[in-house]
């Protein structure tokens, strides 16, 4: 038996590394176990998000957006650029550099806060013991007062489209293409499929996205989703709704995809196919049978509202538990658990977790959609304001989309805040803060916003909730 710790965290992604740092800051003796290993044999911290998820995909989205702007939209603004070229290798090199800098930064934070990093695969045994298997197969068992499971998730594979090197890949492989595919197929029009589709379409690929569901982005407020769909289609993304993939095989250096839609059996030939149908909890060889931790049939670990499992002193956070699979949600849970272990009583406000799709325009939202409120029978009122009427958006050549605020009919309290448009990922934070403080639409309407800014659209949407928008015609109230 090796050292005993107050807290051992299994997994060093956004849930795990944040929990470990917070626990150490609270004076708890903390270790963090991570199995991810670089080619040089060194431990890699940061999990999916930093290495093959949020961060590298944003690096590619930023570059591809700048390329598309330069190649197609600068002339109308008076900037004349000829023969714009894309160096994919350089783009990938820059992405790798950003990832290295950030993951190295976590190692520095562990050091500064006194967190012990343990390399190897962690497995929870009975009585809060953690068995760590190193790369050479050696096992060491550690003991802890508390264990936090933060092992994250991995892409779901589907039988009709098995991974085939060089042809059929998941979201991780799609971040490593060495050249722009001529024709690209994507299975799944969710967040990951849309973001990856955007990257490669901007760089010149002909992109077809096959979505099995009949509605586009069903979790998003449908007024916002329809606006976004229109814009993505205008950009050349061919999004097929109700397209259920039945098979995919490589023939003559092409992927032949067969699918069924409302018109019957269809066929699609592409150079590369990305499977982006979601993610599943990563719980492989994680729990011994007597660990006391229970999972559901989909592999999610059962926890209460404070992320406690059924085993005393064992907690779980992030993608392995219920709720949205979002890095920031995992981090909030990690901080809450560390604080609770230290004897404090914080809680995560699950009603105020923002969601973002980093396409252009961006899509972001927090709280309830109109569809949810209708289904719940709640009386509500809505205010919207288009970026087309916003001076700053027009000046930035990004005047598409809108801000939408939904408030309670009687109390005027903000229930949902939805944005499709420029910098929606930043603008949604205003909605999160407002809702966190229990604001009414009137509170935002009475707040002074700087002019000219994109945020003025929030002000106007809040005014519109009660029929008082200044820069668009208000809907007439029904008598």
From TrEMBL:
Note: The active site is a redox-active disulfide bond.
Protein's cellular compartments: Cytoplasm
Residues binding FAD: 58, 122, 151-153, 319, 325-328
Name of the protein in question: Dihydrolipoyl dehydrogenase
Enzyme active site: 451
Quaternary organization: Homodimer.
Major localization listed first in the record, in broad terms: cytoplasm
Family classification: Belongs to the class-I pyridine nucleotide-disulfide oxidoreductase family.
Annotated binding of NAD(+), by residue: 188-195, 211, 278
GO cellular component, one term: cytoplasm
Catalysed conversion reaction: N(6)-[(R)-dihydrolipoyl]-L-lysyl-[protein] + NAD(+) = N(6)-[(R)-lipoyl]-L-lysyl-[protein] + NADH + H(+)
Origin superkingdom: Bacteria
Gene Ontology molecular functions: dihydrolipoyl dehydrogenase (NADH) activity; flavin adenine dinucleotide binding
Needed co-factor(s): FAD
Protein keywords: Cytoplasm, Disulfide bond, FAD, Flavoprotein, NAD, Nucleotide-binding, Oxidoreductase, Redox-active center
Residue intervals of the Pyridine nucleotide-disulphide oxidoreductase dimerisation domain: 353-462
Organism: Marinobacter profundi
Chain ranges of the FAD/NAD(P)-binding domain: 5-334
GO biological process: 2-oxoglutarate metabolic process
E.C. number(s) listed in UniProt: 1.8.1.4
InterPro entries: Class-I_Pyr_Nuc-Dis_Oxidored (IPR050151), FAD/NAD-bd_sf (IPR036188), FAD/NAD-binding_dom (IPR023753), FAD/NAD-linked_Rdtase_dimer_sf (IPR016156), Lipoamide_DH (IPR006258), Pyr_nuc-diS_OxRdtase (IPR001100), Pyr_nucl-diS_OxRdtase_dimer (IPR004099), Pyr_OxRdtase_I_AS (IPR012999)
Intrachain disulfide bonds: 49-54
One of the Pfam families matching this protein, by short name: Pyr_redox_2
Cofactor annotation remark: Binds 1 FAD per subunit.
């Amino acid at each position: 038996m090796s050292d005993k710790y107050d807290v051992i965290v299994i997994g060093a992604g956004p849930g795990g590394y944040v929990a470990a740092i917070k626990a150490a800051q609270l004076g708890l003796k903390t270790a963090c176990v991570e199995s991810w290993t670089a080619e040089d044999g060194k431990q890699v911290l940061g999990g999916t998000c930093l290495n093959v998820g949020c961060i590298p995909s944003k690096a590619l989205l930023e570059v591809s957006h700048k390329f598309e702007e330069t190649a197609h939209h600068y002339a109308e603004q008076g900037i004349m650029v000829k023969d714009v070229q894309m160096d994919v290798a350089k783009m990938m090199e820059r992405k790798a550099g950003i990832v290295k800098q950030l993951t190295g930064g976590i190692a520095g934070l562990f050091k500064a806060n006194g967190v012990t990093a343990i390399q190897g695969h962690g497995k929870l045994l009975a009585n809060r013991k953690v068995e760590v298997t190193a790369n050479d197969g050696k096992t060491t068992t550690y003991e802890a007062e508390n264990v936090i499971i933060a092992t994250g998730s991995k892409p779901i594979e589907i039988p009709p489209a098995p991974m085939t090197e060089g042809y059929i890949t998941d979201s991780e492989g799609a971040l490593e293409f060495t050249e722009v595919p001529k024709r690209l197929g994507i299975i799944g029009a969710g967040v990951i499929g849309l973001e990856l589709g955007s990257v490669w379409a901007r760089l010149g690929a002909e992109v077809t996205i096959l979505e099995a569901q009949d509605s586009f982005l069903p979790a998003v407020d449908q007024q916002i989703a329809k606006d976004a769909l229109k814009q993505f289609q205008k950009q050349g993304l061919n999004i097929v709704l109700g397209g259920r993939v039945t098979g995919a095989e490589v023939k003559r250096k092409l992927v032949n995809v067969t699918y069924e839609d409302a018109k019957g059996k269809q066929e699609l030939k592409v150079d590369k196919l990305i499977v982006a149908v979601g993610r599943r909890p990563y719980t492989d060889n994680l729990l011994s049978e007597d660990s006391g931790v229970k999972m559901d049939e989909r592999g999610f670990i059962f926890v209460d509202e404070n992320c406690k499992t059924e085993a005393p002193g064992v907690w779980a956070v992030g993608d392995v538990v219920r709720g949205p699979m979002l890095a920031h949600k995992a981090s909030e849970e990690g901080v809450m658990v560390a604080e609770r272990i230290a004897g404090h009583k914080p809680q995560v406000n699950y009603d105020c977790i923002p969601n973002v799709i980093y396409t252009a325009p961006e899509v972001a939202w927090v709280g309830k959609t109109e569809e949810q409120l209708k289904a719940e029978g709640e009386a509500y009122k809505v205010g919207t304001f288009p970026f087309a009427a916003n001076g700053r958006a027009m000046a930035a050549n990004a005047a598409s989309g809108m801000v939408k605020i939904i408030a309670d009919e009687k109390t005027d309290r903000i229930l949902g805040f939805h944005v499709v448009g420029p910098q929606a990922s930043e603008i949604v934070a205003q909605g999160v803060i407002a809702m966190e403080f229990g604001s009414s639409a009137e509170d935002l309407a009475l707040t002074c916003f700087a002019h000219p800014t994109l945020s003025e659209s929030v002000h106007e949407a809040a005014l519109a909730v009660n029929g008082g928008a200044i820069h668009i015609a208000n809907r007439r109230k029904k008598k």
